[in-house]
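#struct-help
A.M.: can someone run this one for me? Single chain, 444 residues.
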Amino acid sequence: MDYRSDILNLIPQRPPFLFVDQIISIDNKKIVTKKIINKDEDYLKGHFPGLPIVPGVLLCEAIFQSSALWISHENNQDNQSNQNKIGVVSRIEKCKFKQMVVPGDTLTIEVEIKDKLENAFYFSGTIHVNGKAAVYCDFACNLIERPNERAVSEAGAEAAAEMIDKSNYQSNDKSNYQSDYLQIKGKNYLIMGVFNAKSIAFNMAKTLKSLGANLIITAQNQEIISKMSKHFPSETILACDVLKEDDLRNLKETISSKKIKLDGILHSLAFADFSKGMPPLHEVSKENFFNALDVSCYSLINICRLLKDFLDSKASVVTISISNLLATSYGHLGPIKATLQYMIPYLAKSFSEFSEVRFNSVGAGPLKTSASAGIPDYLDNYLFSEQLTLRKRSLTTEEVSNTVLFLLSQISSGINGQNIIVDAGMNLNGFDKKIVKAVVKDLY
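D.P.: on it. Structure tokens below:
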């Protein structure tokens, strides 16, 4: 469907600052638009002479204008009172530029609504060129009253800013809402297993901190601690190798000295020695197996035993397992993770004798993390698992972290002793049509 004639009626932008040529499709969740980059675009004369490249900020603007079209279309459909309002960008997150865009390229712009809270909208946008992603961008928009043209020209930027303020233009609305709803602010959490910026524990620590939590973070060594200190300058970060009694004793003494109760623990620890490859299970040495078991599984029992007196009576303990316990790509870590997962209900029952402390695990599908990179042939299995997901798109660390956040909060107080599968439907799709055809095509 061609909505070209409606674009100028839906958004206030005009040439030469209009970066949408056509609306390809639009529904209540998503808009797809198109923009052709002409060689005579004015900005290309200076960016760069002899090597014209579309500035990344203008590619983002094309995404933003597409979101504004979606907002305006939805308001016209559903809410007459919002027809005099426009959407303005209030936050940009996770913006990545994957390839250059040059004259002659046709942009296919897709923007999907992720969440909505009153006048705040949260979007994910992508630009594809020739079928390949060029830009990814997550961002937020707020609805404001359409500024009066005369007022803006007479009073200048100050008047425009005042109009925005009066329209509740607050980029932190969502964070404030989450903090109140999840009841995280002021709570104390122990995050174990921070490795780098790609790890689940790191992602979880960043989210909890943004919601006002107090954190104690553990990492395996001082090198990691020095890196994490830049991200968490005001938090307590300790070296804690769970195989070293001195480290465990220091962790306990540090928590004791703070005279606090822990409202939650994230146990995100796993290790198996694959330095010499991945032997079949029957060839794994006793030393290697029990070392992996100690770090990846028993450490949770040991930590809870050491810290039980410092846990709030309604604390939540969450550990990370895997979604498919029979996946051979994990080697002997597979049965160890199975042990961890099936240990959870027994820990929940054990602690129920004297508290309401909850224990749950998150069975995560394959993720693109640095720790996973050490597993032999992991990339092949990761790409295969992506095709098994129902959406044909791999799981993200943020999606797993969001589930952990829910389980750590008190809004999940009725969930105890469970393993929550988070794998984008991978476990449901063992007989995916495309994969079946790919396997059997050479058999006939």
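A.M.: thanks! The chain has two domains: 4-171, 179-428.
D.P.: also worth noting: The CA atoms of residues 389 and 424 lie 5 Å apart.
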